[in-house]
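Quarterly update from the structural biology core.
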Amino acid sequence: MLRFDTNLRYYSSEEVTMEFQNEISEMISKMARGKQSVLEHFKTYFASAAGTTSSWSTSISWADTDLRRFMTEASKNAVLFIEAFYDACESLIEEEPGTAVPDYNIINWVLSKHSLAYQIKPPELLILSGKKKLELTDILPISIDQSAKDKIHQSLAEANRLLSEGRDKQAVQEILWLLESITTVYRGITNENNSTIQGKYFNKIIGEIRRHNKGNATDQIIIWIENLHGYLSAPAGGGIRHGLDLKEGILMTRHEAVLYCSLTTSYINFLLAEYDRLAGKSTISVK
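Predicted structure, tokenized:
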């Protein structure tokens, strides 16, 4: 069973939309595959969420109609609606062995798709207040070709999707990959001292950028980038790139993952802006 603030059983500031109900109903139909017993199973949970009881319907058609009615009544409290669906799915695994039941990641994806600020992280139901997407600057250097721009935006969209689904480690891995990839645009760039960056991968390139900016703000920012990257990569730190130290490593929490993603995104924005300055190019809006 999902755990959450028990006060939410008696009040809720949010209802679920008809579109969300319809998508959940479609998922139930796919699980039922014409079996009335599965519809009756879900009826019991949604009736309870609506504060009433359920009895066996006279036919599968009526079972579907009754289920939809209970779902509509339960929709007035988003928390109880989500709990009913999740708990019904979990118990269905034992009651109807072999049924293809969606896991919590799929449910989180549907919640995010319909802009419902909740996330299942078994056994907890989390309320995502003030959820904000990761954002790159509205402009990217004109010297970066469209293919590279597309890869940047695709990676950021993937990090957002993973974060919204509660796949925190994977979201941090994706945004760290993007950070490492962004630095490769610096290869061949010449700075104010006529020194050309020649490194081919993150550690070499970022090290050269720092050496070329000793004593200024960029020097300090690169130190912060190196520290974050090093911590997240280390087995006893974030355990993102080289595995987690099973004796000393600590699994990251949700709020830590959001922080890492936000910090890394801000560093990506800085590196793109600094690249644009060094490249001496103008910028255009990304459509």
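The first strand starts at residue 118 and ends at 121.
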